[in-house]
Amino acid sequence: MLSTQEAEGQQQAVVADAPFSSLSTRTHQMYPTLTAAEIDRLRRFGEVGHWETGELLFETGRPGPGMFVLLEGRVKIYQRDGIGRELLIGEHGAGRFLAEVGQLSGRPALVNAMALSAVDALLIPPEGLRALIVAEAELGERIMRALILRRVGLIEKGAGGPILIGNSTDPRLVMLQGFLSRNGHPHSVIDERDEDALHLIEQFAARKEDMPLAICPDGSVLHHPSMPELATCLGLLPDLDDSHVYDVAIVGAGPAGLATAVYAASEGLSVIVLDSRAPGGQAGASSRIENYLGFPTGISGQALAGRAFVQAQKFGAHVAIPVHVKALRCEQSPYQLELKCGGHITARAIVIASGAVYRRPTLEGLDRFEGRGVYYWASPVEAKLCKRQDVVLVGGGNSAGQAIVYLATHAANVHVLIRRSGFEATMSRYLIDRIRSLPNVFVHPNSEIGRLAADDSGLASVSLKRPLPDGTDHFDTRHLFLFTGADPNTDWLRTCGVKLDEKGFVITGTGRDGASVCDLATTVDGVYAIGDARAGSTKRVAAAVGEGAAVVAQIHQMLAASAGEAVALGA
């Protein structure tokens, strides 16, 4: 069940099988009616327009023009998916406002809005919407809460998103589901054996090698699409202007990168955030973080990332996901980030917040099972695949501990393999105590995987290097979760001369002559490193967020010094 705290705070972390009734008691917050006085306060942020009966105010898949405040007339909100099915979502009249959280940045609309009668409405464009949320604190808070809750409702209904058709165990389908879920985008899934799916497969003349299919809201069909291809079809990728010079370009949308975006954008700097997958980084895959300050009952990593993602957009930061940075070019200033998809981003300051990539153990044939029984995180998508089945998990850190606790609520049994004799040296005490209390979790110390075995369906068993004390030498399982650490995601820096340590982490502060240990600058002026990619960093969400805030002050100093030099040269 989606908690009240999570529903308010993010548009992404929605439990896959949560009933829509979790929001049924919050209709007054999702669809508040504004008073005449409140509408008058909003008029300075937009312009009044007129729409005749039958006209569309906005349409699924097309860039949303912003938020509509209805002054006269009635509007029908309805979903229309890629195969022509329609679902009425609601009708609204004078005093209501029409938008969801995507309109903070002018993302494509997820539903249609049709005038049922002649309509007069105040249209507030995205930049005006962001301005009013900041300027009108109390009213802005109510509007923001409604926008977020509406996105949560659309996600739970699958409204406005693509239809995915395929085998539930197909790693490509699992990848697409995970991408959409972590990016807070509605979608629905039809198993390829379902009667409706068989009809659609025949209709589109799809072959086995074409699966999975993605039917976009505009009716276009993608055959086994990549994440960027699906994002392009859904209009998630923003138009990137090669000629625009940002104050700050941030590579990585984990806690460190998003914190930088929030603080920099809120202080008036022009900001762009780039990430190759989804907001949250590795922390976004944590099922529940219970030691983050201010959340005594805990919060999922995806919920925390969702809050930060919305906050960054609120202050005007541009976010481009999924965009893969190929290289950093430092030959001239401002610097350029070369993109794998072509083009580049130009900025006066670069923040390296690219975190780490999951470490792959040396196991023969491991790549054959990735997505087909082997996983590097535990989200609702993976939990649903292993429901009431035995799973094996390898790892002894906090990420592993959070995954163990989460999977124990779905799997029949969780067998945990750790090379050490216990968790004490690598895991927080609260997680150790929680794991000990779970009756279906079995921890096997001093144990390692020897090999993986397959059958026609994928992973079939996990064999051990040495038998356990009770003689067990393998586990029959179709689900193996690997939390064996991560390596710094810094290969893209080697073209720029940013100094790395022997493990590939970025050297800051003490690596520069006369620098303070708090200095987050790298060996290249104007380039900074924060979070897990930085040498000597504390691998904790709170530390990453703190560095994101601290680096903004250092960037301000650098930009001010650069401006002073430019003035002096001009004189």
Automatic annotation (TrEMBL):
Gene3D superfamilies: FAD/NAD(P)-binding domain, Jelly Rolls. One of its GO terms (molecular function) is oxidoreductase activity. Residues 30-150 form the Cyclic nucleotide-binding domain. Keywords: Flavoprotein, Oxidoreductase. InterPro entries: cNMP-bd_dom, cNMP-bd_dom_sf, FAD/NAD-bd_sf, FAD/NAD-binding_dom, Ferredoxin-NADP_redctase_2, RmlC-like_jellyroll. CDD domains: CAP_ED (cd00038). The keyword Magnesium does not apply. SMART domains: cNMP (SM00100). This is Thioredoxin reductase (NADPH).
